[in-house]
Amino acid sequence: MKLKVALLQLLPGKSLSEQLEKGREACERAKQMGADIALFPEMWSCGYDFPVEKDELEAVSIGAESVFIKCFQSFAKELGICIAVTYLEAYGAFSRNSLVVFDMNGQRVLDYAKVHTCDFSEERVLTPGNDFHVCDLQTAEGVVKIGAMICYDREFPESARILMLKGAEVILVPNACPMEINRLSQLRGRAYENMLGIATCNYPSRKPDCNGHSSAFDGVAYLPDAEDSRDTCILEADECEGIYIAAFDIDRMREYRRTEVHGNAYRRPEKYGLLVFDRVDEPFVRRDKRR
To answer: What does the DSSP assignment read for 234-291?
Structure first.
């Protein structure tokens, strides 16, 4: 089974209607390019541009059942392609940084709100999500189990670890920040240590504080007939706007996961008690930093 993920590394428009139209065109193009999944960058509904004042924030937040979201549901069904679209979600009296995934039949199969919001920046006004979720995603190539992280979530190894333990084979990562060598190395490490695929979609360089370099890692470091390890990076885009296709060999990834020694193979969770404490005394000062 081959799974093709289209990383929609697009510049945002200036209105919700522009985001909808450009998103529709991108999904159509992704389908023409043979993609099974179309993945948007972080908070596509507003192009990751939102106010911090409550009244203004409410005005640009949209509901999980809004026309914008339902249109992408219709696109998925009409095109026969899975769509992972992101938005600033109106969540009761609050707002969240969210993603919804529709399968190729237009069925809503995954809703996720960013758990690790960037509370040191504008995202301090947003409400974090409560958990990490996985789902069986029906694609034209078959069923694959996917999960999601959003941008800053990748900074925490627990995010990908939990998704792996829940069975995720591929993690979708909408993003909106500079993807430099250290952040790319994080993604490489998450894929390697959990033996899964990670597909990350960023905004291109003409979007402030972004630089493109959407990427995909398949986590397969060793092959039976190869003496040395292999590069798990199967795609890294440049900084330009465009649609980039990452092809995951799911059959090979499943066999690798069945036979190799990482992921859940030799964990010792009884030794990890410190990880479940709410807070640990630390010599670090919390301060505003880059996302």
So the answer is: EEE--SSSEEEEEEEEHHHHHHHHHHSSSTTSS--GGG-GGGGSS----SPPP-----
> What is the span of the domain harbouring residue 79?
2-276
Distance CA 162, CA 167 (A): 9
CATH code at 199?
Answer: 3.60.110.10
Residue 19 lies in a domain: yes
**How many other CB atoms are found less than 10 A from the CB of residue 129?**
23
| H-helix or E-strand spanning residue 80 | none
E strand map for the chain? 2-9, 37-39, 82-91, 94-102, 108-113, 134-139, 142-148, 170-174, 197-201, 215-217, 233-236, 242-249
Q: How many domains does the chain have?
A: 1
Q: Give the containing element (helix H, strand E) for 116.
A: none
Which residues are within 8 A (CB) of 26 and not within 5 positions of it... i.e. 6 or more apart?
6, 8, 10, 38, 40, 243
pLDDT tens-digit series, residues 31-59:
999 999 999 999 999 999 999 999 999 99
Q: Note the pLDDT tens digit of each residue in 190-211.
A: 999 999 999 999 999 999 999 9
CA dist 90 to 39, 95, 126, 127, 286, Å?
21, 5, 10, 10, 28
Closest by CA position to 215, among listed 195, 193, 191, 194: 191
On whether residue 44 sits in a domain, the answer given is yes
- Domain membership of residue 291 (yes or no) is no
Could you tell me the pTM of the whole model?
A: 0.94
The CA distance from 76 to 274, in Å, is 43
Q: Is there a domain that residue 97 lies in?
A: yes
